[in-house]
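Re: weekly structure request thread

Next one in the queue (209 aa):
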Amino acid sequence: MENLDKKIAQSLMQIKAIKLQPANPFTWASGWKSPIYCDNRKTLSYPEIRKLIKETFVKTIEEKYGRPDVIAGVATGAIAIGMLVAEEMQLPFVYVRPKPKEHGLGNMIEGEVPIGKKVVVVEDLISTGMSSLNAVKALRDSDIDVMGMVAIFTYGFQLAEQNFIDANVELTTLSNYNVLIQAALETGYVKESDIDALEQWRIDPGNWS
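Done, posted below.
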């Protein structure tokens, strides 16, 4: 997996799935000011990058978990990439909504997962981890064995790391914030003078400006 994390980070920057603007920060829905914006769904529009992410996910899952019974995607960002992974591995696929459907059968898990089956959850992005872990809880509440979670990218917040530890969920990501910043510096995407601000944001994103 060595160097693949950098290749994926470079690919995400190349197609502007990840944007870094320390001098002109974004505002998240939470109100946080942020030097980074990530929309990994853009990878679906680029076949070569989509293929790289799919194949790296498959390799990661096989190396860590062998062959699960089912792949689950977290709605909505990881539905498509999760389906691609399941298709490549020739496994059943389900996806997990953020909350039960408000009409019809009221499902939170869409698709069939028999009780006791082993599932690996696919996610596109980890920030605090709460929405991702909400999906894990829904699966576990249905007596499904969640082996772990794999995600394209994580900001690496200490809060998220603690949330995954507390929930007893193993998380593996294809790339991360540290790798991204180093790749951005090497390619001239950001300047050396930006690094301190970028690192400080990750330490205390709620109070960064």
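The chain has one domain: 4-207. The chain has a mean pLDDT of 94.
Next request, please.
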